[in-house]
Write a structure and sequence with these properties.
By secondary structure, the chain is an alpha+beta fold. It has two helices and seven strands, in the order ααβββββββ. Belongs to the small heat shock protein (HSP20) family.
Length: about 150
């Protein structure tokens, strides 16, 4: 059995929680002020990592509105980095008003991979705004070994 490490930043969720709480408190519940601050926050796609039964690991990234041409995947120093730029715009009519919504920003998420995983071992597929990256688990002979202290 091998251990696969993923990068999870719990502080980003905590920051978002406090930003929302303070915005609501100090903007007097003004929804427009909340939207303005949310528009300035960077895009941070959600990521899910699972180990499969067939000695593979699958990382899934939610990238709504992006095309595969907008996404870059790089492997460097045993680090898999998914990055890109989003620039989504929509126009519609609602209740007699024109509504225009825009979302833009750069993003980057990184995973540390085990030693010995090669670029050709990594498979990526994007469908309906969901990027799925599959790579092999770290072989048992390359797993960290515990050294006892004498």
């Amino acid at each position: 059995m091998s251990l696969t490490l993923g990068v999870y930043d719990p502080f980003s969720e905590l920051e978002r929680f406090f930003d929302d709480a303070f915005l609501t408190r100090f903007s007097g519940g003004n929804a427009n002020a909340n939207r303005e601050v949310a528009a300035r926050q960077p895009f941070r796609p959600k990521m899910d990592i699972r180990e499969g039964e067939n000695d593979t690991v699958t990382a899934t990234f939610e990238l709504p509105g992006l095309k595969k041409e907008d996404v870059n995947i790089q492997l460097h120093n045993n680090r898999l980095t998914v990055s890109g730029e989003t620039n989504v715009s929509s126009d519609r009519e609602q209740d007699g008003y024109s509504v225009r919504e825009r979302s833009f920003g750069k993003f980057e998420r990184s995973l540390r991979l085990g030693q010995g995983i090669k670029e050709e071992d990594i498979k990526a597929n994007m469908q309906d705004g969901v990027l799925t990256v599959t790579f092999p688990k770290t072989p048992a002979e390359q797993a960290p070994k515990r050294i006892s202290v004498l």
